Amino acid sequence: MLLQVEGLCKAFGGLRAVDDLSLVVSEGEILGLLGPNGSGKTTVFNLIAGALRADAGLVRLSGRDITRHPASIRTRLGIARTFQLVRPLPHLTALDNVLVAQLFGRGAGPLRPEARDASRRLLDLVGLGAKASVPGANLTLAERKRLEIARALATHPRVMLLDEPLGGLNATEVQTALALLRTIRADDVTLVIVEHNVPAVRSLCDRIIVLNSGRPIAEGKPDEALARPEVIEVYLGR
Ligand SMILES: Nc1ncnc2c1ncn2[C@@H]1O[C@H](COP(=O)(O)OP(=O)(O)O)[C@@H](O)[C@H]1O
Ligand SMILES: [Mg+2]
């Protein structure tokens, strides 16, 4: 068990965004986290990554309680995340965006001479090799999403939390992104993915959890969980 969440709660005022949520993520799997808008998916990521503090409950990484660890320490322990609204450093080149991320990751120390080569390899991996010297602000949405993934990978994560990585991409870009995510998993990075593209989720995920109002309403293999009446009613039937 790589990641474990137990009884996690987060309220905003009177709104229970995440309501007594428990889940586990196994090493090497691709877990999909689905649910309607406002069901708490991004909040779950914020609680796991440490951007928000839980009101109650535990987050464990390889059995270690990290619930009260700041985000920076969680990054060093191997949790990386990408954002629904991508935000590379706009004035830095694609290469420097990745280079900077290396400073914060697992086993990070001062940048070594080979760090630049490592960043180039990551840009190649995500298909941005030719854009290394382009400023973040001048990349297309699809390119910024791939840069975001390269930045996350630069921290040498054990688990990556991907928040709507396919949102806004065209059909060709989606296929490219799916191939990239499969490559990343093959490199022993566990993936948790929030995504509304249901066909993509079916083909990519080993297992999904569907949330509604901060609670799981279905869990299992994508085809099984998506066929559940509760899921059709609150999510697919919209
Ligand atoms: N920082 C915040 N302050 C107040 N309410 C928030 C905040 N973040 C999220 N919420 C609310 O919590 C609920 C869950 O939001 P979110 O986790 O972003 O859902 P999802 O990612 O599934 O669309 C929503 O009702 C949202 O409006
Ligand atoms: Mg969200």
UniProtKB/TrEMBL annotation:
A biological process term (GO) from this entry: D-alanine transmembrane transport
Pfam families: ABC_tran, BCA_ABC_TP_C
InterPro entries with a match to the protein in the record: AAA+_ATPase (IPR003593), ABC_AA/LPS_Transport (IPR051120), ABC_transporter-like_ATP-bd (IPR003439), BCA_ABC_TP_C (IPR032823), P-loop_NTPase (IPR027417)
CDD domains: ABC_Mj1267_LivG_branched
A GO term from the CC aspect: plasma membrane
Alphabetical UniProt keywords: ATP-binding, Nucleotide-binding, Transport
SMART domains on file: AAA (SM00382)
ABC transporter domain boundaries: 3-238
SUPFAM superfamilies (alphabetical): P-loop containing nucleoside triphosphate hydrolases (SSF52540)
UniProt keyword Lipid biosynthesis present: no
UniProt KW Nucleotide-binding keyword: yes
Any one Gene Ontology molecular-function term assigned to this protein's record: ATP binding
UniProt name for this protein: ABC transporter ATP-binding protein
Species of the source: Candidatus Segetimicrobium genomatis
